[in-house]
Amino acid sequence: MEEVPEESSNGMALPPQEDSSSSQQSQVKSNKRLRPSVPVGPPQKRKKRKSSWRRPSARVGYHIHEAEDMLLIVPNLEEPAARAHRKKACHLRKLARPTTNVHQHRRTRRERTRHDVDLSLGQEKQSSPEDSTISGPGWGNHIPLEILVRIFQMIVASEGAVPFLCRAARVCRLWYDATSHSVLWQKVSLAPPWPPHSKGPFSKVEKRILSSLEWLVPNRFSLLRDLSLSHWKNHVPLMLKAVGVSCPHLTSLKLSHCQSVTTEALVSLLRTCPKLDSLNLQNSQVESTAVVSFLEAAGAQLQQLWLTYSSQMTAIVSLLSNGCCPQLQLLEVDTGIKPNNQHFQLHIEALQAGCPKLQVLRLLNLVWSPKTGGRGVALGPGFPDLEELCLATSTITYVSDEVLYRLLHKSAHLRVLDLRGCARLTPAGLGRLPCPIVEQLHLGLYGSVIWVALPKEGSSLITWKWRRTLQELDLNGQCYHEGDLKQALAAFSSTDSGHSPILRSLSLKGTQVTVATISSVISSCPALSYLNLSSCRYLPRGLKRAYRGQAEIQWCLDQLLTIF
């Protein structure tokens, strides 16, 4: 039934009456809308409700994947999946989660990353029956082992075997098999087996590295030919003993800045390595009798020898002069980092008789003088196979024109002549040398004592003698006047013989060369790639520097032509 509105006393219709409870609730709601409610009881901490509403994400054609060291933009090539209504409860998700170990998780993560990279490059791989027969993902499992070994050979030739091969062996099984080939371990250079900041005489890291070396030597060094140990303070005899047992093909041994090198370790290495013919002991602490004993045991097999000056130098030179090593082809003796002013005598003729096949002779920064000399002394057999002679020094020198002629009077194949610091030599003495094909000539004075009368003229005797063969010429600090230098450098501007000069490097630092002379040299030598004009007093400011490359040298020529 419809409610009939009641009438008031004055005859007006009244609205229908509501019960008291409903009217009170509506009044409270209206009050809540008008003003905030005031709590009546004690204050309580209200919990902040999480908003269940989320902004709908715009549908894009890609998503961003975060890899280890990059962000990958991966296109969405597949249809988007239907949106789930609600997530499962936490305990249900834990029960439904599959149990996977750490290795499976890493493998699936790696495979997913590779797949994302392929997608980012636009290379979606289509599955085919042929691909399904191949086991394992990635190109590394399909490359032939021989090709991988050839690739590793090129890397080892440029970067060395260690630590590259040790790290590459941990990539996969195929790379481990490739790095196990003994062909890759023919030349090895090993750093010291301990960290630089380890405490104690024998740390844990040192024990672990030494145990690795004990496994590495017998399992990888079967074809080792060249071994280099650098900055080893301990365990050098132990390492040499292990190498002697497992490396019968060893031909070269280098101990650079090593300590505790004993006589027994070197001599025992000769018994087990009969092909050892090269020894480098520069800057190493060796027992006083180690080198002498090694030379006596080496006999005719030693061909290359690098040494640092010591108290046994006179005995070593005597052994070489007596024919202890007749097959010796390279001999280098230096003084190390600290200069040594100790003087020793060298019997030139006896050394020529004892080492007739010597090809390289380097006496660096040594103070030596010929044992016998004079005009009445007969010349020795010389060095007929000598190709390089280096007598560079920054201290007192006794090398004169006579001494140089005694060394080179039979060296017709000499190509490199380094006489830096030898202030007693004159252009006339160099001009009478019977060496027609010298390619590198270094006559600079670097910090030498200038108490000897320096030559002031005659530089043309040097340049005109070797103008067709010289590729590098160093005249730093020579006090030839400008007219003499002009006549000397004119040898590289002359085209009367029809042969263009092949000069590639010219150093005139501190000389009196002029603008006209150097402009003519640059214009006549198209192969010139290095030019040093530092501290040249007759050149304008801004041009007194070293030029590297043909572009810089051409710029220098343009500047000189504008001035000239």
Beta-strand content estimate: 5-15%
Structural class determined from secondary elements: alpha/beta
Q: Determine the mean pLDDT.
A: 77
Major β-sheet strand ordering: 3-4-5-6-7-8-10-12-13-14-15-16-17-18
Number of β-strand runs:
18
Helix content bin: 25-40%
> Helix count, per DSSP?
19
End-to-end C-alpha gap = 125 Å
Largest sheet: 14 strands, mixed
Radius of gyration: 42 Å
In short:
By secondary structure, the chain is an alpha/beta fold. Helices cover 33% and strands 12% of the residues. The chain is built from 19 helices and 18 strands.
Question: How would you describe what is shown here?
Answer:
The chain is α/β, with parallel strands linked by helices. The protein has a domain at 140-184. It has 19 helices and 18 strands. The protein has a 14-stranded mixed sheet, covered by helices on one side. Strands 1-2 form a two-stranded antiparallel sheet. A two-stranded parallel ribbon has the order 9-11. Helix 16 (460-463) links the parallel strand 14 (440-442) and strand 15. The chain is globular. It starts with 19 loop residues before the first helix and ends with a helix. Residues 1-16, 25-41, 77-100, 117-136 and 448-453 have low confidence and may be disordered. It holds the Pfam family LRR_6.
